[in-house]
Amino acid sequence: MILGINHICLSVPSLDQAVRFYCDQLGFRPVARSSWDKDSRMSRCAEQVMGISGTAADAVHLQGSNLILEIFEFTDGNPQSQNPERPVVDHGYTHFCLAVSDIDEEYGRLLAAGMKFLGEPTSVAPGVRSVYGRDPFGNVIELEQAAGRLLASKSAMEVVKEKFFSAALGAVFVAVFLAFFLWQTPHAFEGPLEPGEIEGYMSEIDRHSVLPEAEKQAFITRVQQWASNDDGRPVLMVNLMRHRDELGELPAEIEFKGTPDEANIFYEKVVAPLALRRGEYPLVGGDAQATSLIANSTEGANRWDRVVVMRAPSRRAFIEFMADPDYGPVVPYKLASTEVALVPIDSQVLVPDLRWVLGGLLLIVFLFINWRRAVSDLRRVTQSEFSE
Hints:
388 residues; alpha+beta; 22% strand
């Protein structure tokens, strides 16, 4: 199993000159040094490995940022010099690349130290700049800066792809958030209900409702008055419910045999998707723990069995929900199973459960601190690699 690159090797005419250049100018450090004579056991081993007989050499291992550079100076074995101006388009080994954090700074420093460059730092991809130069023996070295790269071994193209992926993913998330935000905040682009709209909705409610005529007209009158004062903003609908002991009377055209609870379950099963389709959802709901703690002389005012607060993006959304052809026929199930008070209120104060707010804030801070520590550790690793 291949684990990865361990070292790159160069053959040079002067080992001491090579060590001075790579250590003094490029930040490598010597970690091992060796040599062998042409008649030694090591020369015979080199023949088996390299396929060249009668070699003698001095060698050094230099530790770089994330690899080892091995350099040979062969004194026997008939070493041949390559063209020090050999173009990088020629077949075979062309160059190795050093990742840098500031390419202009490194380019200026090495240029002043006498390193010959083939050009100037150039943008080769979004956030990636590169320049080629030569060591004293003509071997080509690339300096490459990739914005956002923390590990020297990370491919610049991978960094670019990750940046594009992050940008695309961020754009998708922003688009989803904006679409949801506008869906839940229609007053940002819609005005209040117009009289013609209200009349249309009232006609639909009248057409599809199966309530007794007197109850239906009284309901339509109250809804119409509420709609005429529309400000376009979200609305909270407080549902106060009192369970009936027995199922109330249903319209003659409805055949239903069941308990009040079964009637209410059927109602909620039908209306839940109708409400969600228009952006309505429950903010809070629960069964009453006791009767009203403040006594009220009004009959029935002291006992409610369940309270649910629904949020609708606007009065238009809620009225459109009530005018849905599928809504009107199921309202009798609700009224036969419970006594209901439906009170719309402005969402002037809306505070989420502070336990979740605090927990969410602490989680965000925790993740942020650990993210910063991870980034700091990666930077320290990268900087220490370059400084070695």
